[in-house]
């Protein structure tokens, strides 16, 4: 949510020779976002894959 307490206000006062301006504004910006996700198809968890074991002759970093 944005601005859940509805506190976004803008006040403006301007005074000068021949000018008296007062502005009070309150933005209506309270919004809420809702999201969801859904998996279609197979609901069973995928089997975990095993990592290939390192080469016992090599140094185990995967390079030959």
Automatic annotation (TrEMBL):
Lineage: superkingdom: Bacteria
Renumbered residue ranges of the record's region Disordered: 40-64
Record's protein name: Outer membrane protein beta-barrel domain-containing protein
């Amino acid at each position: 949510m944005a601005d859940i307490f509805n506190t976004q206000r803008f006040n403006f006062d301007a005074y000068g020779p021949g000018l008296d301006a007062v502005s009070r504004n309150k933005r209506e910006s309270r919004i809420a976002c809702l999201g969801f996700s859904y998996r279609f198809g197979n609901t069973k968890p995928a089997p975990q894959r095993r990592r290939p074991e390192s080469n016992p002759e090599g140094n185990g970093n995967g390079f030959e």
